[in-house]
Every structure is written in structure tokens, then in C-alpha cells.
Amino acid sequence: MTGFETYQLCHALKLHFNESKYDFFTYNGRTNVTLNSYYGKKGNKFLYESLSSKYSDQELQEYFISNLVSGDKNAGVYGGSGADKYLEWKKNMQSITYNFTNQVSQLIDSVDKFDDLFRIDSGQNPILLKAFYQSDVSIETFLILNKILNFFPQFSRELNDSYRWPNEERRCVQYGKFLDIDIHKYTTILKNKLDIQ
């Protein structure tokens, strides 16, 4: 991938995560960036060519996604922490099943009834959402649980939060489109933890 193609990919992914009207998959990663915009910003050429020489095409996509999901609006291009966030994300992805199993166990142990994790009283954050906000539950575990139980609509309906939850929900939904999750496998893990046959 050339420096300009890397710039195009980064721009498309930033739009995917930050703009409600753009979907990376709908537009096949295409955007209206031009060579003028690529060369127009000082340092762009060097930054993107450096990244394109360091990572493969798949790694570049993962690099940008991992940084965007961690909250970096610039996708790890500026500053020195992009590579560290990418490595941390790769570790999390390699241990996604282990993390899911442990985090679900901790959640189940923290309540009397499993449904208590999702209960919203007077529009306040439920236990599961608090655990997610405090990073006790990873975004991957949170997404897998939602794919199994579909609680996002309930949260959107019942929470008295017009800022944080809508932004987090969007980030989760957009990120979830890139994850290839074996729902049957994780449903079985959840059932085993809950002693459901």
C-alpha cells in the first residue's frame, strides 16, 4: 500500500467511526480525498509512507481501527502512542475468549440475578454499562454480550443520557462491523457460566 492509499484508508476509517452518514462497508472504503489534500498538509506524506512501509495492508487497517476504538480521533497517526495501542489491541484480540469468560464470570459474581446487570433504575447506568465505562469489561466483551442478548435498544430507550451513551453506542456498533464473532461459541460459554442447558 502506498502512502496515499494509507492516507485514504485512514480517512475512510475516521469517517466510519466519527460521521453518522458514512459507512466503510457501504462505500467500500472509498472517500473523496485527493492527492492535493494528501500533499497539502505538512508532514502527511512522511507519516503515511512511514506507516505503509512498517505494516501490511491488513495490519494498517487493524492499526487505525485499534487507535480509533481506543478514543484517538487521529487513528494513531500523530503522537507516539499509536503502535502501543495497536499492540495492546492485538493482545486483547488474541485472548478474546479468555477475557470474555473471565469478565462474564466477574459480572455474574457481582449480582444476585443475571438480569440485574441490565436493570436501569430512574434512567441511571446499569451495572454492566458502569463496568464497561470503568474498563472492567472490554469493548469486545460488551459487544459479544450485546450480539447475544441485544440490550442496546433497551439502553437507548431507558437511559437519561443524551451524550455519553449515544457516542459509545455508535463507537461499539461501528467497531462491531469489523469483528468476526462466533456467536454460537460465546453463547455456549455464557450458558455454561449461567448453568443453562
Tell me what you see in this structure.
- The structure is a single chain.
- By secondary structure, the protein is mainly α.
- The chain folds into 2 domains: 3-86, Orthogonal Bundle (Helicase, Ruva Protein, domain 3), CATH 1.10.8.60; 95-193, Bacteriophage T4, Gp59, helicase assembly protein, C-terminal domain (Annexin V, domain 1, Orthogonal Bundle), CATH 1.10.220.
- Helix content is 62%, strand content 0%.
- The protein contains 11 helices and no strands.
- It has helices spanning 3-18, 35-40, 44-54, 57-69, 82-94, 96-109, 127-133, 139-149, 152-158, 164-176, 183-193.
- The longest helix is centred in the first third of the chain and has 16 residues, at 3-18.
- The model has no long low-confidence stretch (mean pLDDT 93).
